[in-house]
Design brief:
three-stranded antiparallel beta sheet, DNA-binding, homodimer, alpha+beta, 17% strand, 10 strands
Chain lengths: 345, 345
DNA sequence: GATTAGCACTCTGACTAAGCGAGTGCTAAC
DNA sequence: GTTAGCACTCGCTTAGTCAGAGTGCTAATC
């Protein structure tokens, strides 16, 4: 049961109008604004059919029509066309990203900022997941009599460290020995892998003196690994939604805000999404059934994968937002090729 | 022009009632609930005097009275008594803080969480300011042909590092040499000091080979120092305010949320506040003139100073909140004495 | 002189009714 | 199949009413 050409035109017109004005659109205004060559009455008939098919809804009898999630889905899948960014936006992006090029996290945060500034919606960025990262080396360093630093370095240049206080004294030699020992054991293995295999067993304890030091260090090592696996979430433009009519009710606004109160939950959800530009509309989401969510992935050094996202009402300029996100993630992936990459020797 | 004993009693009663119910309180309800031995009419007269003195206001002619900022100030300064925490809260606190004792940032974040859970307000925590931190050593480590890690370790065990890509090749020896070189130059100096003195000049370049390596490393070094000076801000319970009647208007709620959108500004403001428990009420704040803000400081190793804070409407249980914060910061300072301290050998 | 009872007055908030405007749905004509 | 016309529906706004809470003042009382 396909839609006729005219039905598609009308649907598109309704979506455009509703996205713009956030108000149910009536047959008359469609007929006036869009030159479809038919009268309001005809449009009313088509609207009625579209409603029956589930593409439109009706807040109440004497109101105009509102696009349903199904309509937006159709729009995103087949109707929408790629948009070119304005020169202004392009310049804004390149300026901002250039400025922070060598600071990894700052660049990612700036990307999220740009996203919320340009779309006027809420955006976020996730630093790349590191579960595929492999260990390059591990080093222990002295701070004072009882305090040492444990440092884990990944092969993509990721670094994480913890300061830990030992219950036993140590010597420089024992630290060096244990560092080597651990590096040999774990080098080349992924963080996930190391964390999962119950490593306490793994490390060879050929030398007696190391045994107690190792015992002291292991919990901190595990903690540091976990820490290294954590991705950072940067949220931007949360208050933007207050300017949208759909969030003029305090309850709606609260629900929206509360989504992001549980950062961990949200981060997990976002990590689970497929790669590339992914759009989920309204009901397709587990929570936030009245929002749409668009995510896209960028790559670091062609390997590690991070995410950008935009959240807003289902009434959203899908064409502009997806185009922008595609542009931004390409730009990011490009930026992150050289500095961390191994492809310019 | 001091207040009489009875006026103080009435003021206290009004504050109690208003803090509890968020509604203007009338003379009759005071007379009924609090046994002051006088009739509503007398209370009305006193109220009228209190209003003249600026302790009460009047939303409109036929409404009850509402305490002014001045009244809360009086209450906080002289009327309020220290409250003991409930056994339940004490247990909650010790459980939660114990659980994360060895993870510094996690502990601080948990303190903020506790604060918002117990008070049902918005809370935050700042990791300690590190401008007084002194440098212990600096180390450069190889990752691959062109990539190295720069690591700065402070004498309190603070560690920060950056991965940087060099434009020139390097040798292990040159890294070691530069590490030593930099450590000798900066050891014992505060981060602030090092960052301010235009260090490019400072490092001795006795050996020619180091010169270009040094030139490559310096920008990253400065960036890392800056990074090390940054404090982290953890906000908790932002959505709690949606449950308060004073934020049932969307505009109020938006203003509140927007305060925290500029994290940097907010952080700076909070760092400027005096040590100890500090209460600022309504108009005493630069922004958020309809909020009260309570901050308290905790200490790490008796030296570095971090902050906890609570933000809510001026209608707030000042006695409970300040008591809680005192308890929490003492607890934190206690926790942070041993692990990072040097006082148990 | 301080306190209190009594009462007129004020203001809010909830409720109701009327009127307006936007938009539909149906019917009959084209 | 398309369109004009028209009755009808529904929500929103405005005005009006009423009850309730509370004050402020006055005059009586302790």
């Amino acid at each position: 049961m396909d839609l006729s050409e005219r039905q598609l035109q009308i649907l598109q017109a309704i979506i455009n109008d509703y996205v713009e004005n956030a108000e149910p659109v009536g047959s008359r205004s469609i007929a006036k604004k869009y030159d479809l060559g038919v009268s309001p009455a005809t449009i009313r008939n088509e609207m009625s059919d579209l409603e029956e098919m589930g593409y439109l809804t009706h807040p109440h009898t004497s109101a105009g029509r509102v696009p349903s999630d199904k309509a937006y889905r159709l729009y995103v899948n087949t109707l929408m066309k790629k948009k070119n960014l304005s020169a202004r936006d392009k310049r804004l992006i390149s300026d901002r990203l250039q400025a922070s090029r060598d600071e990894f996290d700052a660049t990612i945060r700036h990307a999220a900022e740009l996203l919320s500034e340009i779309t006027h919606l809420t955006s976020f960025a996730l630093t790349p997941a590191t579960n595929e990262e492999t260990i390059a080396f591990i080093r222990l360093m002295p701070v004072d009599e009882r305090t040492i630093i444990l440092m884990i370095v990944g092969e993509s240049g990721n670094v994480t460290n913890t300061t830990m206080r030992l219950k036993v004294p140590y010597t420089q030699e024992s630290l060096d020995l244990l560092s080597k020992n651990m590096t040999v054991t774990y080098k080349g293995r992924t963080l996930d892998d190391v964390l999962k295999s119950h490593i306490i067993e793994d490390v060879g304890t050929d030398i007696e003196a190391l045994s107690s030091l190792r015992g002291n260090v292991m919990p901190g090592f595990l903690r540091t690994l976990e820490d290294m696996l954590n991705v950072n979430l940067y949220m931007e433009g949360m208050t933007n939604i207050f300017n949208l009519p759909e969030y003029s009710s305090i309850d709606r606004a609260r629900d929206f805000m509360q989504l992001f109160a549980q950062k961990d939950w949200f981060t997990q959800k976002m990590l689970q999404r497929a790669d590339g530009v992914v759009v989920t509309i309204g009901d397709e989401n587990t929570k936030m059934k009245d929002c749409s969510l668009i995510t896209a992935t960028y790559h670091v050094d062609g390997k590690l994968v991070g995410k950008l996202g935009v959240i807003g009402p289902t009434r959203m300029k899908y064409d502009e937002v997806t185009s922008l996100m595609e542009y931004l993630t390409n730009n990011l992936s490009e930026s992150f090729r050289l500095p961390d990459g191994k492809d310019d020797e």
